[in-house]
Automatic annotation (TrEMBL):
<keyword id="KW-0479">Metal-binding</keyword>
<keyword id="KW-0862">Zinc</keyword>
<keyword id="KW-0378">Hydrolase</keyword>
<dbReference type="InterPro" id="IPR051453">
    <property type="entry name" value="MBL_Glyoxalase_II"/>
</dbReference>
<dbReference type="InterPro" id="IPR001279">
    <property type="entry name" value="Metallo-B-lactamas"/>
</dbReference>
<dbReference type="Pfam" id="PF00753">
    <property type="entry name" value="Lactamase_B"/>
</dbReference>
<protein>
    <submittedName>
        <fullName>MBL fold metallo-hydrolase</fullName>
    </submittedName>
</protein>
<feature type="region of interest" description="Disordered">
    <location>
        <begin position="242"/>
        <end position="261"/>
    </location>
</feature>
<dbReference type="InterPro" id="IPR036866">
    <property type="entry name" value="RibonucZ/Hydroxyglut_hydro"/>
</dbReference>
<dbReference type="GO" id="GO:0046872">
    <property type="term" value="F:metal ion binding"/>
</dbReference>
<feature type="domain" description="Metallo-beta-lactamase">
    <location>
        <begin position="66"/>
        <end position="244"/>
    </location>
</feature>
<dbReference type="GO" id="GO:0016787">
    <property type="term" value="F:hydrolase activity"/>
</dbReference>
Length: 261
């Protein structure tokens, strides 16, 4: 069954070669061992960024349906992906010497953008989302069609993202791939530079599954085209960081995910 706003969850810890245990972060060389669970709805990420000069990733599990929020840190600069809840708490658990440059939403569902307002206020970072999902994100604090609401409505974006745009933090670069299907404005962030082998896919792709298409704005036909495109454009040796559940690798998904066959 395709995943989306309803899912089973166990957060994962892995490096660029293999999966590890549950609940943790990693750097580009080895497992991070940072797993510091904490209050305010966040998990997996307390104090694991900024320990040395290597790029690092922290994962925070936030909100009532356990959305994965990621912080990618390179050379003291940070990109936060999908703060769906607990924006202030996320800011408090980032290292004090890190400058958050961008807050990026992979799509506009409330469970991915409800924490944007508080996080932007706390950090002064620029908020970016596809123009096609910007309006949807402005209703995160209101009840969705599934009856859920999140911290706050997202503000107007500082940047709107489209195919081929590149966001830079430190020595890492992330190229925007348009990935509609779950929502009209879904995007994927494919890393290069020091972020090579990293990809943030939101709710487009999951371990063994893909995003649901039965919510407003979803399209199964469009999702199939997006997944076919990701098969071509994401290298096999890429760590895939999903919007819910375990991270995975593109190699494993190409071998095992029925939606990529």
């Amino acid at each position: 069954m395709a995943c989306g706003e309803e899912h089973d969850h166990c957060c994962g810890n892995h490096d660029h070669q293999k999966d590890g245990g549950c609940c943790g972060g990693h750097d580009h060389e080895h497992d991070g061992g940072c797993c510091g669970g904490h209050d305010d709805g966040c998990c997996c990420g307390g104090g694991c960024c900024g320990a040395d000069d290597r790029d690092q990733i922290a994962m925070f599990v936030v909100g009532p349906i356990e959305t994965n929020c990621y912080a990618y840190v390179s050379q003291g600069e940070c990109l936060v992906v999908d703060p769906g809840n607990s924006g202030q708490a996320i800011a408090e658990h980032l290292p004090p010497d890190v400058t958050v440059r961008y807050i990026v939403a992979t799509h506009g569902h409330g469970d991915h953008v409800g924490g944007v307002k508080a996080l932007r206020e706390a950090t002064g970072a620029k908020y970016a989302i596809s123009a096609l999902d910007a309006e949807l994100a402005k209703h995160a604090g209101e009840k969705s069609e599934l009856g859920r609401s999140y911290d706050d409505n997202a503000p107007d974006p500082d940047l709107t993202l489209a195919e081929g745009d590149v966001l830079k933090v430190g020595t890492a670069e992330f190229r925007v791939l348009e990935a509609p299907g779950h929502t009209p404005g879904g995007i994927v962030l494919l890393g290069s530079g020091s972020a090579e082998h990293v990809c943030f896919v939101g709710d487009t792709l999951f371990k063994g599954s893909c995003g649901r298409t039965d919510l407003a704005g979803g399209s199964q036909e469009t999702m199939q085209k997006t997944l076919a495109r990701l098969k071509r454009d994401i290298p096999a040796h890429t760590n895939v960081f999903c919007g819910h559940g375990d991270p995975t690798t593109m190699e494993d998904e190409l071998a095992q995910n029925p939606y990529l066959r």
